[in-house]
Amino acid sequence: MTNTMKSRRIVTTSVACLTLAGVLSITTGCQTYLNGQTLPSPYYLQDDVQYFPAGPEFKLPREAAALKAARAEEKLNRR
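Structure (tokenized):
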């Protein structure tokens, strides 16, 4: 192989690799994690919307009731 054929092969291989990398980067749509942010995919506008209905504002009513009952019982036992 001559030097001309080697350099042509290197150039052709480099161009093919760069073209493949460009095509893959354009056609791939996935979420990315960058500097603590989760960034959406390029297709987020076509995604279906998930709806989560609003729940109760206070998430722990049973725990609050149990704590209140325990405080009341402790108060009664102190007397």
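The beta strands are 32-34, 37-39. The helical segments are 3-27, 61-78.
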